[in-house]
Amino acid sequence: MGYHRAGYDVTGWDLVPHPDYPFQFHLGDALEVLNDHDYLNGFDVVHVSPPCPRYSLATPAANRENHPDLIGPVRDLLRAWGGPYVIENVPGAPLHVPVKLCGSMFGLQVRRHRLFETNVPMMQPECDHRSQPVVYGVYGEHGDGGIVYLRPGTGTSRAVKAADAAHARDLLGIDWMGSWADLADAIPPAYTHYLGEQLLEVTALA
Q: What kind of fold does domain 2-202 have according to CATH?
């Protein structure tokens, strides 16, 4: 959605269906798509978000080897294609000189730090955590009622989970997703809007 708001026509691919995806959608293996240079040449920019459990702190260290390490193969395929690309993943992922984006940069009450590797020069904004008096999280299997828990001794608030899917949609700036599971995996459209505007400027696609 962020790329759309920046001015792009968007086409999505995934291994599982997403009936509420608001743009053209195809069901398939992204690695096969990235091998098809003739197909990729129909696009100005390619954005890829490989599965993150391999690198996420939420995955127990002993289990990380059980998840695929796809960032290297994805990068190799994108470089072989040769066009502008973005690879998104979580902090700790082996991305090359990534830009880190945070909800605090865009006036959101979620932080959701995410890394973006790109072969196009990008500006790196600064986090503004002080602007977030209460920080909400969207993760796990469900919301927790939106209860604000306080740190013992200081009385200051700490991050709490969103109350429910409707609350999560509002926090992330996403109004088309229905399920908590999809919201828990999503990044705020403000992030890709920010990237998309720079991509349009740098690549002279506007």
A: Rossmann fold (3.40.50)
